[in-house]
User: Fold this.
Amino acid sequence: AQSVTQLDSQVPVFEEAPVELRCNYSSSVSVYLFWYVQYPNQGLQLLLKYLSGSTLVESINGFEAEFNKSQTSFHLRKPSVHISDTAEYFCAVSEGYTGGFKTIFGAGTRLFVKA
Amino acid sequence: GAGVSQSPRYKVAKRGQDVALRCDPISGHVSLFWYQQALGQGPEFLTYFQNEAQLDKSGLPSDRFFAERPEGSVSTLKIQRTQQEDSAVYLCASSPGGPPWAFFGQGTRLTVV
Assistant:
């Protein structure tokens, strides 16, 4: 069965500092991997996705994540965070058709960027 | 509409009351999902529709939970005889059917008192 572990429930960081939000998953088949972001009082939004091909994926606002199959990880990184990045970040995995299209989410990591 | 719309945004129910939560997916989206998000947790899968067919309801926590999508567009999640443990945010998501990611609504926050 699929599962997702986000190793940090909260990550406080100063503005312009780098950040890494950690995510590990387990699955017996090939997977699709996602990071979703939830800003205060808003719905979940897809931040970036790994489907196939290049293991390094990037978002439009400077986040990147690298799929590491041997370590079953999909950590999210940003070299310099902004106050506006304060939000809850969810790592998620889908087995696609094999898993019935359901997506399994981690418990979330609250990123708090301080001035 | 441009996005997934859920109503009501907030619902307070007395224990034992029945509730119905509505989801309007993005027009033309084939797939529709319901998730339950407890406070401080990630969303947990409840059920999945492809058009009007409910293909997976393995996440529904009990037979008090029922979901339908009779015409393949709007969906309703019904909870009978609500209990305090049903208090959560209920999220609806839709996708075109091909890609394995989805567009989420803002959710309905259900509080059972």
About this structure: Chain A has no helices and twelve strands. The two ends of chain A are 41 Å apart (CA to CA). The interface with chain B takes residues 4, 6, 32, 34, 36, 42-46, 49, 51, 90, 92, 94, 96, 100-108 of chain A (CB under 8 Å). The longest strand of chain A covers residues 87-94.
